[in-house]
Amino acid sequence: MQDGGEVLFLDGAGEVIVSIGRNGLSLDPLHPELFSSCWSSITLQPKLDSKIKFSDVYAIELLDKGPICGPWNTRTAFQGNNDIEVFVHPLCGKGRAVENWETVAPLFDRAKVKTKVIVTERAGHAYDTLASLPDIELKAFDGVVAVGGDGLFNEILNGILSSRHKAPYPPTPEGFGYFESSENCEEQTRNGLNCSMPTPDSVNTMFPGNSSKCDDHEPLLSTSQPTGLEIPSLNSSKEPCVGGQDHLVSFPDDWFRLGIIPSGSTDAIVLSTTGERDPVTSALLIILGRRMSLDIAQVVRWKSSPTAEVLPTVRYAASFAGYGFYGEVIRESENYRWMGPARYDFSGTMVFLKHRSYEAKVAFLETPNTHSLAASEEDDVTGAQPLQSRQKRPRKIICRTNCFVCKEASTSGQNSEDENADSSRTICENPKWVWSKGRFLSVGAAVISCRNERAPDGLVADAHLSDGFLHLLLIRDCPLPLYLW
Ligand SMILES: Nc1ncnc2c1ncn2[C@@H]1O[C@H](COP(=O)(O)OP(=O)(O)OP(=O)(O)O)[C@@H](O)[C@H]1O
């Protein structure tokens, strides 16, 4: 025992004095002079992390007794009393998800974090499981973890939100005059779209989970041949579209913890959140309960039903939602899944060579930061101008983490973080929809692409959107950066 601490022998470092502070342990060499060279000023002290924060400790074991408590740090770790639900997609990426889970599972065991593991057997398995799970059972989980790629995460996100996100839809296409004229109708028919007039009653105030959505059984990924990868339509689960059911979990008021152990082909969400495409890093971050808010985009596609009603199909995206080029690349790439990650390059080239452009009408929330992109004053509902003619790229919006990319944008004369927060507030409280139409190479909404400086600028995730009319709305951390190419 030494004044102010205990002397321990540490492998590779020798004797150290260990003292306990409020937030962690301090380690100081007992004989620092032994590490100094007599004849030079070079210090030969071995590398020693002189501080260990309690919040970085994920388990404690006594050599002879094994784990002594668990989970070790209930303040930062997963709550610990309940399980976390883990979905493993055995076929994703290079087929290493099961192996990756087997590598990290002992870390969860060691930290006494209980897991309930489901290995998915088909596309839609995770979605169905979560969408049909009674709220009381969902709430009993401390979180849900995907061992897979962006597509599996996307299923989990949609399974959790589909019947539980309660928010008004953005304005209908009717509100933008989309279906107003027969000319529009002819144009749509030429483009292979199903055109019919909406019923007069606006669905602006409808909430997901109420009756009209029950009629929509369109798969998200529409292909002429079944790929086995279609995500089931909303509300195709056992959970009925009921009014009056007392939901215990309701977004955006509630929050829920999600994790990804990267095992996919592109892992865009992991790259733009943790920045490390490494299963062990992700597992440790999950066990330690490190968290960050995730921007989620709600994508509403309005489509005519057989009864000529225009009904919304709602999906949620956490990285990127794309229509046009990107949508087609993703759709095409499903046919070449056997190629592994190279399928994206291959189908990207194939689709590029087709040199198509896509008819689109886009509605988006105008923010002060995106003014260079936003429509001019005459571009209101009655007088749209094609956005293609605007060459300027939108200015970056500063993200919450104030990453390198955003910092750079702000120092080059852009809005400060405070101004950005103010503009977010204005948009949330006072949304002003702008719309425009034209032919585009692609229309996409990047949700979290600036979270991490290492993330590629344009992220492509599994946002399978077929031709149709899209409304994009950010439900958390608005504003949503919307890019038009
Ligand atoms: N057992 C399964 N068999 C077939 N498809 C599955 C299975 N489990 C999930 N899927 C589907 O496979 C799709 C792709 O999965 P995932 O995104 O995890 O892998 P990936 O495409 O290789 O990775 P990334 O999205 O990072 O490119 C998902 O959209 C999901 O619906």
From TrEMBL:
One GO term describing the cellular component: membrane
Molecular function via GO: ceramide kinase activity
Chloroplast recorded as keyword: no
Keywords for this protein: Kinase, Transferase
Residue span(s) of domain DAGKc: 79-303
Coiled coil: none
Gene3D superfamilies for the chain: 2.60.200.40, Probable inorganic polyphosphate/atp-NAD kinase, domain 1
Domain of life: Eukaryota
Protein name: Ceramide kinase
Organism, as annotated: Dichanthelium oligosanthes
